[in-house]
Amino acid sequence: MSFRLLLVVLFGISAAYLVLVAQIELDPWSAGDTINSRTLPQIYGVMLCLAVLAMALGGQNPQGPASGPAKRKVKRLAWLSALICAFIVSLLWLNLWIALACLLLGALWTMGEKRWSVICALSLGIPLAGFVLIEHVLLMTIPLS
Amino acid sequence: MLEGILTGVATALTLQNMLWVAFGCLAGTLIGMMPGLGPVSAIALMIPVSYSLDPTGGLIMMAGVYYGAVFGGSTSSILINAPGVASTVATSFDGYPMARDGQAGRALAIAAYASFFGGTVGAIILLVFASSLAAVALHIQSAEYAALVLFAMTCVVVFAQPNERLASLITLLLGLMLGTVGTDPMGGAQRLTLGLLELSDGIPFVLLVMATFALAEAFRLAMGEPQAPQGSFSMRDLLIPMSVIRRLIRVASRSSLLGFIIGVMPGAGATLASFFAYDVEKRVGDGSREAGVTAPEAANNAASTGSFVPLLSLGVPGSGTSAVLLGVMLAYGLQPGPTLVTEQPEIFWGVIVSMYVGNVFLLAMNLPLIPYLARIVSLPQQILIPLVIAFSLLGVLLTTFSIFDLALMLLLALGATLLRAFGFPLAPLLLGFILSGLFEENLQRALLLSDGDLTYLLDRPVALVILFMNAAICLLPLWNRSES
Known about the structure:
The structure holds two protein chains of two kinds. Chain A has five helices and no strands. Chain A is mainly α. The longest helix of chain A has 22 residues. Chain A is flat, with a radius of gyration of 23 Å. By secondary structure, chain B is mostly helical. A two-stranded antiparallel sheet of chain B has the order 1-2. In chain B, a hairpin with a 6-residue loop joins strand 1 and strand 2. In chain B, helix 1 packs across helix 15, helix 5 crosses helix 9 and helix 7 crosses helix 18. Classes of the chains: A mainly alpha, B mainly alpha. At the A-B interface, helix 1, helix 2, helix 3, helix 4 and helix 5 of A face helix 7, strand 2, helix 8, helix 16 and helix 17 of B.
């Protein structure tokens, strides 16, 4: 992804934001206020559009690589994101601590840890410690929604 | 007042109360170190314990929990870049890079010393000026707050590196925009929720912090080249050269004073104080990483003490944490306010003196632990990254109990990773998010008082001075350019 493309995305976000702000429903008694529910968001949206345009035209780039992250590096990021997605979905039908154990197992493997003793110790030990500390010592219940 | 202080000393230094403050500090530190659980959660979790104590012992323990949790939050900020609470975000800016460079022990030691210094300065000011400061705090109203918040936002952009000003403005605006999601605090309108019920309360702050700092940092590390584990740590890390101490004392003094003043203002709190102190130090001071850890730590501890001024003197909670403490006091049948100091001086002064005692305990307990805590960053990356991911997800889940929030967190973390990859600073995004609601609420309230007249801001002398300062620093880059 190039820097220009990132600026296009940011401009798109600010434009979409302004469209959504225009759709905010105002109460009849607050519509005439100097500052109502739309005013500041509109100012922020317009300012972001202008700032992105200024960056695109002025070429004032922040410090950083010109072409963004390389493809091979993004692959690992994609794997970790997929694991987190799987963790989130599994929470709908798995117990939190079991899902967490699976996430840790997958993430450790993805990051290159191949020692099964370490993988098992961490992916079982941490959820177990969390379960004891959170649900038995601190007496917190986790009602997921 | 001297009599009151002596009463406080006599109350706080009983063996029973000293044990409670030590227990509070330990429990607060442990809870505060868990990502997502900050001082508010720590105090809320300890409420059942406090009910079994007498009011003085219970409140003294809670003061210890408060301090301990603030320090515990700094530990996770420095070690894994996962600030569970807003007030320790600024600590991670320089603390985490220090930890990555093998200076975790030193960063933690500096944080402990700075916290102690800030807490001590705060406690001394509180002892001497508690009643008169409360009167001053009453004069700071919505118009002044709105001007102050605007000033903070301007500082973030103007004082950024010249080639990062536009990038800082863009991330600040993104933060402000994220802060507008949810129900409008004054008008009650649903904004930018896309019809989703989960967004009607807005985006939780812990979620944004975890996404932009902890999870995004784990992603960044995962995409980078593997790094060798950082060396070993020992008690020698706790010894800081005299020349550095002399330099840092000046930093801590400035930041403590600034932190206390901001902490006294109801609603401003430790977060604003730590950001302000960090920013001021980066501009006025030598810009070293040690100073970058010292300033926010000293400021947030002094501000934590300062937030007790409106609570104890006026009965007005100055922050979320002191609001929970107010609830505890009311449950004990105590009425905080001007009458507390006359009717129950042993509680008023006992709590104030125990804050200082709590600081001493905190330092004595945490310093020996630092070499062990610092070993966390010496874990190989293939272990550290999965742990950071797991703890940050768990932190958000424990705070919001929402699966939707986890998905939102992943989305925001990917966005933050992309922005960071192109060199956009993320600190202004968080500051914008924090200040968004504060700015809008106070501006709307000021306009409500003035019947919609914007010139009302100019009629109030303190607000006018802040706005004038704001305009002056906006012109600073132009002046610098003409100078060069």
